[in-house]
Design brief:
Residues 2-182 form the TonB-dependent transporter Oar-like beta-barrel domain. This protein is mainly β. The chain has two helices and twelve strands.
Length: 197
């Protein structure tokens, strides 16, 4: 054993250190895709362009399940718009029954067949590490030294597309497919890189 026969003073400073860590992997938050021409098809939904609201303006998804062939991945950070692209919109679904990519515009007055919350935003990964040592001050009194690092790899907990029209699969203007913020559910412990003693 290393330093097995050392004095109590050396053991006091060198011995008894403990290392602990935790890792969290989370799937991304779910969201429901919308389409831009909803106002022409339904008069009951005013939420299709608003972030964070549910919408009845869902497109039809063609065969092979929700979003097959519709690429979703986090792009690089855009320093001008302070956002990251999560998906690129398909061509506009200009008339009822129009198809673009894996989507189709539903018939007038109907709700598309894609399920609610059928898409997931980017996944999250966090790692925390702590180093600590119990220090005996007296026979019945013990202190503890701790050094902790949260979010060791400085991974940003990205949210879902949340700007106006950001969840719109066929909008050609605005922030379609852009992530402009972090996931508020983990913004306390998941971000940013932080150290404490």
């Amino acid at each position: 054993m290393f330093l097995n026969n050392t004095s109590s003073w050396v053991n006091y400073f060198v011995g008894g250190w403990q290392l602990a860590g935790s890792t969290t992997w989370e799937s991304g938050l779910p969201f429901t895709p919308t389409y831009g021409e909803c106002g022409q098809d339904q008069d009951v939904d005013s939420n299709f362009g608003n972030s964070g609201n549910s919408s009845d303006c869902r497109p039809d998804v063609l065969a092979n399940g929700p979003g097959k062939g519709f690429a979703r991945s986090v792009g690089s950070f855009d320093t001008v718009t302070h956002s990251r692209r999560f998906f690129s919109p398909v061509a506009p679904l200009t008339v009822n029954g129009a198809q673009s990519g894996p989507f189709a515009r539903p018939a007038f007055g109907t709700i598309g067949n894609i399920g609610r919350n059928s898409f997931n935003g980017p996944s999250d990964y966090f790692a925390d590490v702590s180093l600590f040592k119990n220090i005996r001050v007296r026979e019945r009194i013990t202190g503890q030294f701790q050094f902790e690092v949260f979010n060791v790899f400085n991974h940003a907990p990205l949210g879902v597309p949340s700007a106006s029209n950001a969840r719109c699969i066929d909008c050609t203007t605005g922030a379609s497919g852009l992530i402009t913020g972090v996931d508020n559910a983990v913004s306390g412990s998941g971000q940013p890189y932080m150290r404490q003693i």
